[in-house]
Design brief:
This is SDR family oxidoreductase. The protein is of the alpha/beta class. It has 10 helices and 13 strands. The radius of gyration is 19 Å and the shape is globular. Bound molecules: nicotinamide-adenine-dinucleotide and uridine-5'-diphosphate.
Amino acid sequence: MGLGAARKTALVTGAAGFLGSHLVDRLLDEGYEVVGIDNLMTGDLGNLERAGRDPHFHFQMGDVRQSIHVYAELVFNFACPASPVHYQSDPHATLTTSVLGALRLVEMARGRRCTIVHASTSEVYGDPTVHPQPESYWGNVNPIGERSCYDEGKRCAETLLNDARRAWGVDVRIARIFNTYGPRMAFDDGRVVSNFIVQALREKPLTLFGDGKQTRSFCFVKDLIEGIVALARPEPIEGPVNLGNPEEFTIRELAEEVLRLLGSDLEIIHAPLPADDPRQRKPDITRARELLGFSPRIGLRDGLRATVVDFQARLAERSPKGR
Ligand code: NAD
Ligand code: UDP
């Protein structure tokens, strides 16, 4: 699993975000010199507290839509708002970050010894008609809906990166990441895991959108980062690789699990299902298992427990009563 002992440079875009910051910590542990770029659209410098104490970490405030002047042997492209609430708040920024961010990295990497590991998403499958979703499925995506800035931006970035590999031999790796959760998710991020945990800790009713029968498969961040690091192995990997935990839950089951964990009997209230909300989602991880030995180990209950502990600590820091 190791990335090698020599101190090479890794660039992480979106370094101050949820996933980017965990990746930065992991790369520092692996012995990399790490440069992090972020414009703080949704990120938080607090996520980089540990990295900030490491002399091998260097932060640059910057926007991936501009030229990137960092040279790194390994690039992890994680810059992009990821929660529907955030990415729909500025659709133009979301789409241009995906597409121009990928373009700038190709410009940087072209003609150099450089591997780009790109954070794509299960959203490229849209509201899937094939279940579970293998990488060979082309998806069912609305090109002009409220989610399109994200879904189509990510699809276009995949196209751009694959063309760069075919035309110029740029070494690109594409991770199609399925719903991932864990410590450091933003309180106001609007994704279901953070919403339910914050609501439960604040003793507010849990907001279930639609009938709650829609499904997602939730991967704990530590497992996901293992997959990302494995994907950055020295030998090239062509084509996208699904990374996620195939254990599938309805959103109602998730709400009940959060309440069970906290010993709470709070009310679950219903709100309308957002437009184009996928009915089901579950990764087929055969390819990741075979190529990378990827095998998520942390089940929903343990992962949620660790996430709740982190949220409790951060909420307590914000207010002495932890509310
Ligand atoms: P996040 O919002 O916590 O992190 C995204 C980071 O990118 C933030 O720090 C933000 O400030 C930064 N950013 C946004 N636009 C930028 C720009 N133009 N220039 C520089 N920085 C910019 O989200 P996350 O959950 O950590 O997601 C990270 C990546 O993983 C995203 O590309 C996302 O699409 C992908 N992903 C995440 C999940 C998940 O479940 N968490 C699932 C699929 C894909
Ligand atoms: N959801 C919900 N209550 C919330 C937030 C989200 O019921 O407070 C639902 C949402 O409609 C979707 C699922 O939970 O069906 C996952 O939503 P999230 O935004 O976390 O991720 P995505 O839809 O991008 O997979």
